[in-house]
Write a structure and sequence with these properties.
This protein is of the alpha/beta class. The chain is 23% helix and 32% strand. The strands form 2 sheets. Strands 4-3-2-5-6-7 form a 6-stranded mixed sheet. The protein has a 3-stranded antiparallel sheet with strand order 1-9-8. Strand 5, helix 3 and strand 6 form a beta-alpha-beta unit. The two termini are 25 Å apart. The protein binds inosinic acid and magnesium ion (MG). Inosinic acid binds next to strand 5, helix 3 and strand 8.
């Protein structure tokens, strides 16, 4: 891949090209449009990683769709490994009667998503599903799965298309594997 100003020195290899992602996102959009044809759909993006995915996926959906965003951070890790989710930014739209679809960049341990789903369930949406661009099933510690998945990926640290390492690389058009030495040190 091109290497302007050494931007990609930390990258091991490209995993998914922008074209591959675009083709898969189009398929996800078609499936979602079909499944929600007669239901008021609210897509909720989990900031910041889902921003690029949301922007593309919403345009691949050809039925009415509302969007909103949440920002969450997990705390209670380490000693308190049950983990909880703290809401840093909440949605503005009421969930009552809405069919909500949570959009995640990547499903890893599943902890963030399971806590977020438990929290949103208390607001009594009509239904709740999950779309994840990437899924690392080998890392799952919570019994949870996405209803729509873009790609199953290996247990490597990935960046690009919204995913970051220390807030970098979100703007890569595709998804790349970060060199192990970058985060192992
Ligand atoms: P989980 O609670 O372990 O499922 O964490 C999911 C979150 O961790 C994702 O929404 C990402 O923000 C982050 N994450 C997990 N794996 C990766 C990765 O390979 N690259 C970048 N971020 C990741
Ligand atoms: Mg995230």
């Amino acid at each position: 891949m091109p290497n302007p100003a050494g931007m990609h020195d930390d990258l091991e290899r490209m995993l998914l090209s922008a074209e591959e992602i675009s083709a898969r996102v189009a398929q996800l959009g078609q499936a979602i449009s079909r499944d929600y044809a007669d239901k008021p759909l609210l897509m909720i993006g989990v900031l910041k990683g889902s921003v690029v995915f949301m922007a593309d996926l919403m345009r691949a959906i050809d039925i009415p769709v509302q969007i909103d965003f949440m920002a969450v951070s997990s705390y209670g890790q380490g000693a308190q490994s049950t983990g909880m989710v703290r809401i840093d930014k909440d949605i503005d739209i009421s969930l009552a009667g809405k069919h909500i679809l949570i959009a995640e960049d990547i499903l890893d341990s599943g902890k963030t998503l399971s806590h977020l789903m438990a929290l949103l369930a208390t607001r009594e949406p009509a239904s709740m599903r999950v779309v994840a661009l990437l899924d690392k099933p080998s890392r799952r510690t919570v019994d949870i799965r996405a209803d729509y998945t873009g790609f199953e990926v290996p247990d490597e640290f990935l960046v690009g298309y919204g995913l970051d390492y220390a807030e970098r690389y979100r703007n890569l058009p595709g998804v790349a594997v970060l060199k192990r030495e970058v985060y192992a040190t």
